[in-house]
Amino acid sequence: MDNKGEKSKKVTSKSPSFSLRSPSLNALRLQRIFDLFDHNGDGFITLEELSQALSRLGLNANLSDLKSTVESYIQPGNTGLNFEDFSSLHKTLDDCFFAGDDDDLASPAAADESDLAEAFKVFDENGDGFICARELQAVLKKLGLPEGGEMERVERMIISVDRNKDGRVDFFEFKNMMRTVKQIS
Q1: What InterPro entries would the database entry show (predicted)?
Q2: Is the CATH number 3.40.120.10 carried by domain 109-182?
Q3: What is the mean pLDDT of residues 31-56?
C-alpha cells in the first residue's frame, strides 16, 4: 500500500464524476466497464486488455507502470483481474484519489441528480443540453462498443428514449431512462 499511497499524492484535483454516489448506479457502471475492458469475455481483464482499454479512452499508460499498480490485485493463478479484483482496485483508487467528494451534497436525491448531470455531460459533447445520435455514436465508439459503428442502431437507441419525438435526448429523458435502468438492477 505504501507505493500506492505515494502515487496518490501526485493527484491534486478531484473529479466528482469518478464515483457515482448512488451505489446501484455505481455497481452497474462498474460491471459495464469491466465487461468492456474484458475484450475476449473470459471473465478476466489482463494487463494487455486494460492497457488497450485505457488507450481507447485516450489514457495511454506505460505497461510496466500499469503492471506495478495492478499486479497486487490479481489473485495467484489468475491471468488477470476478475470482477472482484477489479472492484477492489476501483475502490482503492477511488479512496486514494477522490475521498471526501461526497461531502458537498446534503441529500441522496441531490447526489443522484448531480451524478446524472455529470453522466449526461459525458454524452452531450457540444454542451447544448441535448444528446443527438452523432454524440451518442462518438461516445459508444470511444468505449469500443459495436453499437457505435452503426448509425441506424444509434438512432434507434435515441428513438427508444426520446419521449417528445424531437430526435434528441434531453436531460429529463436521460434521467427517466437512467432511473429505469436503476430500478431494473
Answers
A1: EF-hand-dom_pair, EF_Hand_1_Ca_BS, EF_hand_dom, EF_hand_pair_protein_CML-like
A2: no
A3: 90
